[in-house]
Specification:
Layout (H helix, E strand, L loop, with lengths): L8 E5 L4 H12 L3 E6 L11 H7 L3 E6 L5 H15 L4 E4 L14 H26 L6 E6 L12 H21 L4 E8 L11 H9 L9 H12 L10 E4 L6
Parallel strand pairs: 1-2, 1-4, 2-3, 4-5, 5-6, 6-7
Helix pairs in contact: 1-2, 1-7, 3-4, 4-5
C-alpha cells in the first residue's frame, strides 16, 4: 500500500462527518497522524467517531473540540496537533455550513453565523497554520474547502457564494504571500457531494444533479482523493489553484 503522507501530520477541521471524515481517514491510510477538529465528536450520520475509527483501522489520530468561529479554539487545535505529533504539515480548512434563502431575507444574524464559520474559520485557520509552518524547515501545505459556489452563482445562495468566493480568492492570495516560505495553498471546489448535510436539501440536490453531465452526486471519498493529491508531494508545483470537482456542472 502506498503511503504518500508517511511521517506527516494533518489537522482536519470539520473532520467528524462528511467530507472531513473521509479526508481524515484517507490521510491516515496514507500514513499521516491526524487531528480531527470539530464541534461534535459523533458523526452527523451516526457511527463510530472518526478518530476512533482511524485508530481501529491501524492509524494514528486524536479528537480536539474546535469551533472554527473561535480563534482561540483554532489555535488550541493547532497547538494540540504540534504537541501530540511534533509538527503541522497539512492543514485542511474543511468546516463549513450552508443556509439557503433569498438575499432580501438574509438577516445580520444569518450573515455573521455563516461568515464566522465559512470564511473567518478558514482565514484564521490558515493564519494559525502558517505561523507554525513558517518555523518548519519544509514549510507545509494548506487545503481550503471552497465550492463551485466560490466561482459561480447558485439559487438562493448569496451568503454561501460570498463566503466561498472569499475562500477561493484567499487561497490565491496566501499562495502568493507564502510561497517563499515553502507553503503551498490550494482549494477544492466540489459540486454536489452526497453527505448528511447536503442531502437535507433535496430540492437543491435535484436541481444541481439534473445539470451535472456525469448524472450523479459526488462522494466524500472522491473529495478525499482530491485533497490527498493537493496535500501530497504529487502536487509539489501546484499552488494558488482552485480544483473544481463537480461532475462537469460548471462546464
Amino acid at each position: 500500500m502506498s503511503e504518500r503522507l508517511q511521517g506527516k501530520t494533518a489537522l482536519v477541521t470539520g473532520g467528524s462527518s462528511g467530507n472531513g471524515r473521509a479526508i481524515a481517514r484517507r490521510f491516515a491510510e496514507e500514513g499521516a497522524s491526524v487531528t480531527v477538529a470539530d464541534v461534535r465528536e459523533d458523526p452527523r450520520m451516526g457511527g463510530e467517531p472518526t478518530h476512533e475509527l482511524i485508530e481501529s483501522e491501524g492509524g494514528t489520530a486524536q479528537f480536539v473540540h474546535c469551533d472554527v468561529s473561535s480563534i482561540d479554539d483554532i489555535h488550541e487545535a493547532v497547538e494540540a496537533t504540534v504537541e501530540a505529533f511534533g509538527s503541522l504539515d497539512v492543514m485542511v480548512n474543511n468546516a463549513g455550513v450552508e443556509r439557503q434563502r433569498p438575499c432580501g431575507e438574509v438577516t445580520e444574524e444569518d450573515y455573521e453565523w455563516l461568515m464566522n464559520i465559512n470564511l473567518k474559520g478558514v482565514y484564521f485557520g490558515s493564519q494559525a497554520a502558517i505561523d507554525v509552518m513558517c518555523e518548519q524547515d519544509d514549510g507545509g501545505t494548506i487545503v481550503n474547502m471552497s465550492s463551485i459556489a466560490g466561482i459561480r452563482g447558485l439559487e438562493n445562495s448569496s451568503l454561501y457564494c460570498t463566503s466561498k468566493g472569499g475562500v477561493s480568492n484567499l487561497t490565491r492570495q496566501l499562495a502568493v504571500e507564502h510561497g517563499e516560505n515553502g507553503i503551498r495553498v490550494n482549494a477544492l471546489n466540489p459540486g454536489f457531494i452526497e453527505t448528511a448535510m447536503t442531502m437535507e436539501d433535496g430540492e437543491t440536490a435535484g436541481g444541481i444533479l439534473e445539470q451535472t453531465p456525469l448524472g450523479r452526486a459526488g462522494q466524500p471519498e472522491e473529495v478525499a482523493d482530491a485533497a490527498l493529491f493537493l496535500a501530497s508531494d504529487e502536487s509539489s508545483f501546484v499552488t494558488g489553484h482552485n480544483l473544481v470537482m463537480d461532475g462537469g456542472f460548471t462546464a
